[in-house]
Amino acid sequence: MEKVSSPSSSRRSAYLEALTQEIKKKLTRAVVSPAQTRNLLQDLFADIALEVDERAKDVLLSKEEDVISDEADTDGPLCFFDVLADYYVKVSERGKDILDLMVQLWSQSFASHIFSLLFHKWLFEVELENQEILLRYSSALVQGATNVFWIDIQTNTRRFQTLFRYLLEEVALEPTRLKNIPIQAQRELYLLLSRFIFFYNSVDRLDSFLRNFPEFPNAFLVGGAGDFLVIELTDQLQKLKVEPVLLHYLSQMKILQGMELRMTTSTRLKACLYSFTSPGGPMYPTRAVRHAAWDALDSLFPVGRYPRHLISLFFRLLYPWYWPSSCWNFVVSCIKAVLYSIVRLIFSRREKPRQS
């Protein structure tokens, strides 16, 4: 007997098919109208990155899936690209026309963004025999994922966290899927994940991530997996301009404590953190960033802690225009410390009679 699809399943398929047709229309217009290509692709990217509203959820998700999606809110909002990515894995022929159009727009802005969102699961679930095409798709995935992750960083949101989690947990930590892409793409993917693993709060997977790190041809010069991770993180820190994101990275740096690193890598990390401890150029860190950098530096490199602070104080004295703000912050800190001590003393005295 033929299996009869439920009405909800039919509605879902029809809705996803309508979305697919709309995507094809926009991509076709982008191909035939070069002057409007960038705007059309940008609009399409914005559309598929939208969060699924409640009305669309009623169509796209069953009751069981709805419960799962509510529980998964900590991984970021459910967006249209999440649903479409699953759809193009289950019904791979529906994405073929879109892929053909994407190839024609390969060099355009936002093309890699769209590809990484719609086909990141398809790439690892569907077997491709042509290695040249596979390498092209893999490179586009890494490039597109890099771009969308940077959008999250610039806006200090985690809209694309589901993409990161899939690449980390379902690909990087699953050798069977990882082997579906060429070794060159595997290395690029691991370097990408190294740069954003702190931002997407995945440090709990760091040990497994480092154990599965692929071999690099220049490993004898650079070092082990930990060295590659730290090098990517230090480069990432130098590029961050959003203060909350930078503070988040610095607060996560303590997880590197005890990691075996080469001397050159350790020095590189120390120099990177030290560059955030002084006001002014080239980083121009805020006071909060400077304190977070000092905390990370003292935690990772406790030896020489006090000499570093003395040297920093000496150099601060060479810039008189920083004295007023430094004195003011020092006075405020002292007042806060005294007030906190008085409050603790009052509460401790109140609790003693109760205990007696």
From TrEMBL:
Superkingdom of this protein's organism: Eukaryota
Keywords associated with the record: Membrane, Transmembrane, Transmembrane helix
- Which segments cross the bilayer? 328-347
Question: Would the keyword Transmembrane helix turn up in this protein's UniProt record?
Answer: yes
Q: What is this protein called?
A: K-stimulated pyrophosphate-energized sodium pump protein
Give the originating organism: Brassica campestris (Field mustard)
